[in-house]
């Protein structure tokens, strides 16, 4: 049983939606892009997308960027996308209401 513990921990965290401190108090908007599941949070002019499903295929950053645009209703500022396939950050350009 002790050998199974690390596996159980990894599996329990695989779908984790734990935002960083700057986005911690904000609720996530669930967005699905081409089978990739994300929780998107927006704070002022920045956004964060956390990938919720386990996957190993190309294009996760692009799908995360699309999730940010769909989840926030804003465009991503050119050159501002950063992070990795699990947690993606972007600065936003939003039209005035």
Number of helices: 2
Radius of gyration: 15 Å
Helix content: 10-25%
Classification by helices and strands: alpha+beta
> How many β-strands, per DSSP?
6
Number of domains: 1
| Alpha carbon gap, first and last residue | 56 Å
Strand content: 25-35%
Q: How would the global form be characterised?
A: globular
Uncertain parts: 7-15
Q: SSE order, as H and E?
A: HEEEHEEE
> What profile does the largest beta sheet have?
6 strands, antiparallel
* Mean pLDDT over all positions: 83
Protein name: Lipoprotein
List the helices and strands and how they pair.
Layout: H1 5-13, E1 29-33, E2 36-43, E3 46-51, H2 60-72, E4 75-76, E5 82-83, E6 87-93
Antiparallel strand pairs: 1-2, 2-3, 3-6, 4-6, 5-6
Protein name: Lipoprotein
Provide an overview of this structure.
By secondary structure, the protein is α+β, with helices and mostly antiparallel strands. The chain has one domain (25-93). The chain has two helices and six strands. Strands 1, 2, 3, 4, 5 and 6 form a six-stranded antiparallel β-sheet that branches. The longest helix is centred in the C-terminal third of the chain and has 13 residues, at 60-72. This is Lipoprotein.
């Amino acid at each position: 049983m002790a050998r199974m513990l690390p596996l159980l921990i990894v599996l329990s965290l695989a779908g984790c939606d734990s935002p960083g401190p700057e986005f911690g108090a904000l609720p996530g908007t669930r967005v699905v892009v081409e089978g990739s599941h994300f929780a998107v949070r927006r704070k002022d002019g920045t956004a964060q997308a956390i990938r919720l499903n386990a996957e190993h295929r190309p294009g996760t950053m692009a799908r995360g960027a699309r999730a940010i645009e769909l989840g926030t209703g804003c465009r991503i500022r050119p050159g501002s996308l950063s992070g990795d396939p699990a947690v993606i950050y972007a600065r936003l350009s939003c039209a005035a209401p």
